From TrEMBL, chains A, B:
<keyword id="KW-0805">Transcription regulation</keyword>
<dbReference type="GO" id="GO:0005737">
    <property type="term" value="C:cytoplasm"/>
</dbReference>
<keyword id="KW-0963">Cytoplasm</keyword>
<dbReference type="GO" id="GO:0006950">
    <property type="term" value="P:response to stress"/>
</dbReference>
<dbReference type="Pfam" id="PF22381">
    <property type="entry name" value="Staph_reg_Sar_Rot"/>
</dbReference>
<protein>
    <submittedName>
        <fullName>MarR family transcriptional regulator</fullName>
    </submittedName>
</protein>
<dbReference type="InterPro" id="IPR055166">
    <property type="entry name" value="Transc_reg_Sar_Rot_HTH"/>
</dbReference>
<dbReference type="InterPro" id="IPR036388">
    <property type="entry name" value="WH-like_DNA-bd_sf"/>
</dbReference>
<dbReference type="InterPro" id="IPR036390">
    <property type="entry name" value="WH_DNA-bd_sf"/>
</dbReference>
<dbReference type="GO" id="GO:0003677">
    <property type="term" value="F:DNA binding"/>
</dbReference>
<feature type="domain" description="HTH marR-type">
    <location>
        <begin position="9"/>
        <end position="144"/>
    </location>
</feature>
<feature type="region of interest" description="Disordered">
    <location>
        <begin position="146"/>
        <end position="165"/>
    </location>
</feature>
<dbReference type="GO" id="GO:0003700">
    <property type="term" value="F:DNA-binding transcription factor activity"/>
</dbReference>
<keyword id="KW-0238">DNA-binding</keyword>
<dbReference type="InterPro" id="IPR039422">
    <property type="entry name" value="MarR/SlyA-like"/>
</dbReference>
<dbReference type="InterPro" id="IPR000835">
    <property type="entry name" value="HTH_MarR-typ"/>
</dbReference>
<keyword id="KW-0804">Transcription</keyword>
Amino acid sequence: MTETRLDLDQYLCFAIHSAAQAVGRANKPLLDKLGLTYPQFLVMLVLWAEDGQTVGGIGDRLFLESNTLTPLLKRLETAGYIHRTRDAADERQVRIRLTEKGRALRETAKGEKIEWVDRVFEGDQDAAQALRQRITALRDKLLPEKLPPAKAALAKPASDKPPKE
Amino acid sequence: MTETRLDLDQYLCFAIHSAAQAVGRANKPLLDKLGLTYPQFLVMLVLWAEDGQTVGGIGDRLFLESNTLTPLLKRLETAGYIHRTRDAADERQVRIRLTEKGRALRETAKGEKIEWVDRVFEGDQDAAQALRQRITALRDKLLPEKLPPAKAALAKPASDKPPKE
DNA sequence: AGGTTATCTATCGCACGCGATATAATCGCG
DNA sequence: CGCGATTATATCGCGTGCGATAGATAACCT
């Protein structure tokens, strides 16, 4: 019959897929304390690092687009963590700004610790870093050509000539 | 200000999260040819290896539960790839069986190739295997211990102080 | 200037993932 | 045997992801 033995773990894509699910579940207790979902927490991380970013700017860092971010940001606004206001200079953009409550949440978050990394790697920080780098390298090779996010934001973009297709 | 520079890639959880998204996008062209979503494809993989499994059996392999699988399986049934029938011996269970169309899809799938693994690893199979193993090891350390139901009860002697909670 | 094109955000629809709960069948135990 | 506990699946609600598309505003071009 079709009793071909199947080991799903032989598929790299399933390994990553299922690992991401497992990580999500492992993060859940911490996020519940903050009252945030994981994507919401990522947005707060981005805003804690730099307030007043645009929807698109946040999306560049998180690899998300407005169809995902707009509803998410509205929920964060309803929860009282952020304000959403059109940029006066460019009315197409929406600037996301932390409220006092949103900034305060950062202190709560700092008090919490991601416990599962220690539990899994048992102090072997090098192994954790190596794995992290390999995974991000894999991701960056898969993503369509987009400028490396954090660094590009630092330097003022000199007007260059993008080669057109 | 709060201009702490943020490198999200320093977080292992974000690395995995974003890598899983990237892998999903990379798989999309292949899945579109098959007319399946990625979770649907995983279910088909499981069934191609062993037909006639129960909902729970499939869920064990994919780390999913009936709240996710039931609607997904109904869609596969609507698409004509599977049948869902109650097990005669145990009417609680639902057996999932491939249709002829479902089996035929396997041949189509075999003709397709996951191209991005080669593109990313450029023939370095060892690197791909090593990464895969590290990721699955991470996942397995994160997942709660699942005891094979009946067997664990046998070995357990009569220490009848159930954990109060 | 005016018309075209590009950019930015929002909206809609669908498919997961999952917590909470419901329902039905089976098991366990006196 | 009967009744409570357990198991298997289903249902409901919400929050993402994401393709497709719409709408408004800005940039561009001759």
